[in-house]
Automatic annotation (TrEMBL):
InterPro entries: DNA/RNA_pol_sf (IPR043502), Rev_trsase/Diguanyl_cyclase (IPR043128), RNA-dir_DNA_polymerase (IPR053134), RT_dom (IPR000477), RT_RNaseH_2 (IPR041577). This is Transposon Ty3-I Gag-Pol polyprotein. PANTHER family: REVERSE TRANSCRIPTASE DOMAIN-CONTAINING PROTEIN, TRANSPOSON TY3-I GAG-POL POLYPROTEIN. It comes from Cajanus cajan. It comes from the Eukaryota. Signal peptide: none annotated. Coiled coil: none annotated. Residues 55-234 form the Reverse transcriptase domain.
Length: 353
């Protein structure tokens, strides 16, 4: 009763506990999109996916609607199609739900440095939340055979992420920060010992059962010492750079265009926590983005690039902070940048946190 093997295995979360509302602006005019043409392969995929949604009770047929959107198909890495709906017009008519999302850095810091970790993934998490009944018809989409609307919260709605985070905060209110971290649909249970980990998992499972949630057995990982969480590698040692991101930079050729420099800059910034004095060292590279019309990959750019590819072969590990130990702050002031690092000392060795 914890796992779902198909969409039909999901009973859904009680709508009295939480449901998704649209709150469309009163002055907004409904938009019925004209049906777009699709090829034969896409048409068959739409028929297949629509039937799955009908069988699961996620959608229902609708005949009279003022809001109508087109289906959009996205190719998955597996080669299969993911069916989405183009809710561009509907999203424009809805105000933004500013429910606060947790700080990613805080989540990663809180989950690192534990002896045992379990990573949980909800089965089609968004679809486990019901739509507010009067708003169902506003999610209508068009196919070759009929128009349908969602009975559950679909992907693509403007405030779906905020609603899902609100659900997680309500369900795991007493555990977040203590033995669990949750960022939207990313969940990790953290513990310092095997015995405690079993107890903490039992507590999480009890909440999942209580609210009729279901997990995806193919994406859950239990009792490991490290795994990827929010694009970082968290382990019992601390926070490690994502090896895939490091590899992407190491295997890059020297950029020859502004677009390639932009790609390199984005990859470097995503690893900024692990690269000391990044702005200073990457100065020659970042300068090219300020003057794209005078693009020239200089020797200084190449030297900076090669220093990063060498450094990222063995990036540093950020240790979990010890709240009983002193924090040491180091500042480096250069002409082009100011850098800082916080370290703690363990057995006369200083390590970044």
């Amino acid at each position: 009763d914890l796992f779902a093997w198909s969409s039909a295995d999901m009973p859904g979360i009680d709508a009295d506990f939480i449901c998704h509302r649209l709150a469309i602006h009163k002055e907004a005019r409904p938009v019925a999109q004209r049906k777009r043409k699709v090829g034969g392969e896409r048409r068959e995929a739409i028929i297949t996916e629509t039937q799955k949604l009908l069988n699961a009770g996620f959608i229902r047929e609708v005949r009279y609607t003022t809001w109508l959107a087109n289906v959009v198909l996205v190719k998955k890495s597996s080669g299969k199609w993911r069916m989405c709906v183009d809710y561009t017009d509907l999203n424009k008519a809805c105000p933004k739900d500013s429910y606060p999302l947790p700080s990613i850095d805080k989540m990663v810091d809180g989950a690192s440095g534990h002896a045992f970790l379990s990573f949980l993934d909800a089965y089609s998490g968004y679809n486990q939340i019901m739509m507010y009944p009067p708003d169902e018809v506003h999610t209508s989409f068009i196919t070759d055979h009929a128009n349908y609307c969602y009975r559950v919260m679909p992907f693509g709605l403007k405030n779906a992420g905020a609603t899902y985070q609100r659900l997680m905060d309500k369900v795991f209110h007493h555990q977040i920060g203590r033995n669990m971290e949750v960022y939207v649909d990313d969940m990790v249970v953290k513990t310092t010992s095997v015995t405690n980990h079993a107890t903490d998992l039992a507590e999480v499972f009890a909440q999942i059962r209580r609210h009729n949630m279901r997990l995806n057995p193919e994406k859950c990982i239990f009792s490991v010492q490290g795994c990827k969480f929010l694009d970082f590698m968290i382990t019992s040692r601390g926070i490690e750079a994502n090896p895939e991101k490091c590899k992407a930079i190491i295997q890059m050729q020297s950029p020859q265009t502004v677009k390639e420099v932009q790609r390199l800059a984005g990859r470097l910034v995503s690893l900024s926590r692990f690269i000391p004095r990044l702005v200073e060292k990457a100065g020659p590279i970042f300068t090219l983005l300020r003057k794209p019309q005078n693009f020239q990959w200089t020797d200084q750019c190449e030297e900076a690039f090669r220093s990063f590819t060498t450094f990222l072969t063995t990036p540093p590990i950020l240790q979990r902070p010890d709240h009983k130990a002193d924090l040491l702050l180091y500042l480096v002031v250069a002409e082009s940048a100011i850098s800082a690092v916080i370290v703690q000392e363990h057995q006369k060795v200083q390590t970044p946190i």
